[in-house]
């Protein structure tokens, strides 16, 4: 059983406190934090401005990355999917989780960009959206803060590149693992941590109202994306069971609150599903829903998942949907498809078994 204290679990103030409890002055905790994230130290031995005694003590009772690289797959377009072996949890349950390196010459706004890291927050997902691969196998567990943070560091180490964008759009619902994900986001944001600005990190949620309310109040240092997929209550409930208890009108109110408090647009993600939510009337409903909401819409071509009864619309329908929204003056982007050949694209993560899902659309 893992008993060592896991350093990537700690935000900077927490690490200062922890080392303080171990008899160290304040600056030592801050120094150790910088070693972790600014110098990307891979061992305590490298932390040469800590005393030799302390380094030895840390080697005995603390540890760094909890992730073991299980396998890696590279796509023709440069996307790399990483599969990590997580340590067993207290119940002895081990799990595999994925993250993705997405190379990008330009971001959605046309700005030059380096690599984007797509991170997971849970092994599995309890939301069970009917189109998504992650929700099919049984939910395993929440990731720890360290397991979330270590995904970026592990990909950097393996690929020799660094990330200037992070999207929390891998496996799992980040708001359903609220505390651990929040802490990971604070470590990413910390100027002495990975120093990623609010606009550089996007957390995507399926729209859990209570959690979004808390997210606004706690002021997570990230941008918000909400998976909408339909502005029609009936269709959305069929696609996303959580819509029944987290209805669209309340969701909109909360998104308005976010944009007002943060003075930032909210990103709406909208997967296009053939004959389900891709018709002109669906675009009209979406436009009406977005009226008076400071938002941009990311249209996503559906990435097919074996055994699920959905298709991607043809290119003509995709462009027509986009153009209808554009004509209404909306900010709309069509997300590029990445990593489809290695099942690393949105919603294809975590699909290891080919069993039938236990719900019908
Ligand atoms: N659970 C969170 C974040 C992870 S999912 C959420 O749902 O927002 C990240 C994005 O991928 C979401 O917008 C999700 O709806 C989308 N997605 C899921 N399955 C997909 C698929 N098969 N094809 C394309 N996008 C998909
Ligand atoms: Fe979970 Fe997001 Fe997939 Fe829905 S789309 S099942 S919330 S990971």
Map the helices and strands.
Layout: E1 5-6, H1 12-21, H2 26-37, H3 52-61, E2 62-63, E3 68-74, E4 80-86, E5 95-102, E6 115-118, E7 122-123, E8 141-142, H4 145-159, E9 163-168, H5 178-189, E10 201-205, H6 209-218, E11 223-227, H7 233-239, H8 248-262, E12 266-272, H9 280-290, E13 295-301, H10 315-327, E14 331-334
Parallel strand pairs: 1-2, 6-9, 9-10, 10-11, 11-12, 12-13, 13-14
Antiparallel strand pairs: 3-4, 4-5, 5-6, 7-8
Helix pairs in contact: 1-2, 4-5, 6-8, 9-10
Short description:
With 361 residues, this protein is an alpha/beta fold. Helices cover 32% and strands 19% of the residues.
Polypeptide structure, described:
The protein is of the alpha/beta class and 361 residues long. It has two domains: 5-63, DNA polymerase, domain 1 (Orthogonal Bundle), CATH 1.10.150; 68-353, TIM Barrel. The chain has ten helices and 14 strands. It has a ten-stranded mixed β-sheet with strand order 3-4-5-6-9-10-11-12-13-14. The longest helix has 15 residues, at 145-159. The chain is globular, with a radius of gyration of 21 Å. The model is unreliable at 351-361 (pLDDT under 50).
